[in-house]
Amino acid sequence: MRIKDIEFMPKYIPEELKYVPEKISKVWENEIMESFENVGLNKDRLIKIYERMLIARYADMKGYEMFFKGEIPGYFHSSVGQEAVAFGVIEALEPEDYITTTYRGHAHYIARGGSVEKMFAEILGKATGCCKGKGGSMYIIDFSKNILYSSGIVSAPIPVATGIGLGIKIKKEKKVVAAFFGDGATNEGEFHECLNLAYIWKLPVIFIIENNRWAITSHVDRMMSSYNPSLRAIGHNIPVYVVNGMDFFEVYKVSKKVIKMVREKQEPSIIEALTHRYHGHTRIDPAYGIYRTMDVTEWYKMDDPLLKIRFFLIHIGWLEEKEIEKIEKKAKEEVEKAVESAKNAPYPELSEAYTDVYLDYPVEK
Amino acid sequence: MSRSREITYAEAIREALAEEMRRDPRIFIMGEDISSDYYLFPATWKLIDEFGPERVRDTPISESAFTGAALGAALIGLKPVVEIMFTDILTFAIDQIINQIAKIRYVTGGQLKSLPIVIRTRNGTAKYAGACHSQSLETWFAHVPGLVVALPSTPYDAKGMLKAALRGNDPVIFFEHKMLYRYKGFVPEEDYIVPLGKANIIKEGHDVTLVSSQLMLHEGLKAAIELEEMGISVEVIDIRTLYPLDKDTIFKSVKKTGRLVVVHEAPKLFGPGAEIIATIAEELIEFLKCPPKRIGMPHVPFPVSPPLEDALLPNKEKIKNVIKEIMQSDSKNL
Predict the structure, then answer these.
(1) What pLDDT digit, counting tens, does each position of A60-103 carry?
(2) ipTM
(3) How far is the alpha carbon of B14 from chain A, nearest alpha carbon, in Å?
(4) Which of residues 171-230 of A touch B (CB under 8 A)?
(5) Distance from CA of B90 to the nearest CA of A (A)
(6) Does residue A242 belong to any structural domain of this protein?
(7) Owning domain of residue A247
(8) Whole-model pTM?
(9) Could you tell me if residue A78 is inside a domain?
(10) Distance CA A167, CA B29 (A)
(11) A330: in domain
């Protein structure tokens, strides 16, 4: 019954969205191309991004399915629906920039070019995982990708990202740090403390609020004094950009601009991306039916970030429907293959339980 | 030839910070009001004159934010020293210490190697400072895997242990003691470290082993000297670090004396004494001539009223009485 929840395509697609014009008007195409070139996007790059986004989508759908079958130890927090935020921001960063992610961090890792196999091995607690299986689903951290932090505690990465910003400043590097966290984390004091700290110390931190409006089953309407969490930043003098987090193009373009500004001025900014988590928070709450109606979820799926790019690629004539289907099939197969090899990977040796606690001192067994 | 002079515990800490900051440009310190000449505690006075505001960083009253920021800075290769004014205020930074700093190396599967974060704070009574400026919470932190818990008791140890912490690779919660800040002791002029995890026998003896640290160590030592005149020979051990706990030194002493007393300012229940005595009970019970004793605070908060605090805190007299008692009861109980 619950497996049904994981279908991501809308059950109902309005007629006007199905309509694919024969050929897009030349004027419109030129306009798009120009705006693309301005931000460094082009056909090949967009297709690659779409491929990675599909992998992020299928990976979390697969994980969610496995989680309900009891195949995943611990917890699993799906990013399905929120991919445009991850990809929009991360595509706008430079490879040497730093990222802190969260317990809902799978899409961030894939967007940064992470390996699906290493991710699933980590989720399954295998020795080949990015953290040797000791972190699990909530710790998809990979130093080689400059993904430096994640935590099972919702607001904990915010001070850590602020400190990375401080480190960048002390070391006089021309880097930035992108800190992802959810709307729920802005109700923790650490969020407010860190905005203050980042402002008074002028730190190159981009705080990215992935506002999916739900903290487990509590809606922002009930839990937050301001409708938009980023409004709280006004008191801290930090510029705020609110974007449609369901639209890759918008997130990417705004991020590009914000990141450039943060890098040049070495001052913090906030991007609040309004987005939607299609799935439940984790296991106990289903995607909809109890605290949110199916209608709402279906309505958001109309606005799906992947569908938008899909329609765009077809409308502009860069890919035929058939080619896209092929890409989608390939992404699905890649995820299946990665999951299979993660499943077959060995668990860590028992001695591994006692390593990485101290570097200079023995561990009391 | 080693040259030595008498300096205070606070000066020893300041020297350790200054010398290590000269030695290692990656070290910076941050905390509330630390650059001010009017700050209550002199351990960071004037450091800003030499190292500037980038490396001697005043913070707003946001312990969780700047403790987490220390972790972030350490992730990209810096060596932060965080000052939290009082032990009691560590509670504000507790998620960052317990769930983040202590665990990050483990959950990254060792991708993170060195994590040199030193969190300095001030433990214990300040004479009538009341409920939230007097506590000793070291067991909370020793209970969490991934942290080193240091409790220096003398100027010599304060300097040497802080240097060891700054040159190490693991996060250290460095508990200084408020009442020892003006305490003077001999400190060599040349560079030295006191390795963390090694207890110190302050006074040798053969009748009773007294395990302690910080202010209570000084009380215990006074008690031991007076008891010596009464013919009771007490061996006084300064544990120096609660984790790693130097069990070997304590074991060797208990095997010799057969009697054990642990004294600390932390509440008697679930305090350092509970762990030390449990360890002895598990591994050395056959050597004990009488039941071991804990001396600690009763299970009440610190009152400001001077006669009340004086009555609650362990002191020289209480330690003497407990030791005299167990010497009298001797092996009757076991």
Answers:
(1) 999 999 998 999 999 999 999 999 999 999 999 999 999 999 99
(2) 0.95
(3) 22
(4) 171, 177, 189-190, 193-194, 196-197, 200-201
(5) 15
(6) yes
(7) 28-345
(8) 0.93
(9) yes
(10) 12
(11) yes
